[in-house]
Design a protein that fits this description.
This protein has 11 helices and 17 strands. It has about 400 residues and is α/β, with parallel strands linked by helices. One of its GO terms (molecular function) is diaminopimelate decarboxylase activity.
Amino acid sequence: MDHLYKQPDGKIFELVDQLREPTMIYDLDGIKHTVRVLKEDIELIDNAFLHLAVKAIHNKEMLNHFAHLGLGCDVASVGEYRLVQDSGFRKITTTSPYYSRDSMRTFVENDIVMDLDSMDQLNDFVEMGYSKEVGLRIAIPIPEEMDTIATFGLDSRFGIDFYESKDELIRLKETYDLAISNLHIHTGQSTGASFQFKLKYLLEIASQIDTIKTINLGGGLFYLFHNREETRKLFKEMNLLIRNWENVHGRKLEFIFEPGGALLAGNGYLISEIVSKKVHKKRNVTMLQCDTSFWNLSPWIRSNPIFLNRSDEVERVVFVGNTLFEGDSLSDFKEYEVPKVKKGDKVLFPAFGAYALTNARRFNRLNLPNQYVLIDGEIHSLEEEIRGEPFHSI
């Protein structure tokens, strides 16, 4: 994955010492690098475009940066749509397991085609009669030999089983003159073999619905981009497959990739201060008490902490958060060997750029970290939408 991310400007380590509160820093130069790499590879497929999964980040200013880089985006709700509607994204797509009728109306009025997740939602849509154009999120029966622990095929709760629902889809299409224009999937992480299987599966469906214009291949690109050389070879093979399909069927298709984590995870850093040290008697390990909460931010994130302190001595530690929840720890009390730490040392936690704040909670009514962006070696404050209301003394 080294090719996807670049080291941040070294000045970040000087700037961190100026911060007095828990902070999230996004590296804009790193984001630009990741976008460039992904675009270079994705565009080996004709008419393929890079989108951002907005569920990964809700900061308005950062969303504007992604729009200015020429991306499209995918939203999961009207709330997310409101965040991006004026940002200038090339195209806005949407999928969700549920849209209220008011939400459906909003998307139709703004010319955004919904990729619906169930036949019940499709029936709601046609009963409303607001639009003839719709998309479908498709369930993919990934063969067992292509499955991984991070892939969701038959065990996914999302998507419509096309062949199980085919007769009803045809009936609705003919009865209501529906134009099913999009096919959309998201099945967790992909291997090269499973990704090619998914493409072939969707092309087979598109060959049976002559109104399909767009195939959205979703995100989950970490596994796929682990070996860039192999990925580029795969995309060239996929492009030949697509060209042959288009020649046979006499129509062009648009393809969308919509990562969230791959774009952001490695380009965001949580900055925290060590406020105390003590030994966990049962685990026989030093606990480093941080001034932020891992439980409130995304306890499943795996991170390799970076210390500004470069002591020659090392110690075995766990990182714990500042709530009253016993399990508030980094990576479920994972033990790290780090330079010997003292109270007041700052630590950078990589891999917090995606989902940490969009999934955040405020247990104990703690504030969430301030947000900054690193641009050309300088950090700039980001306007914060979700930090929380101020506390009032009683």
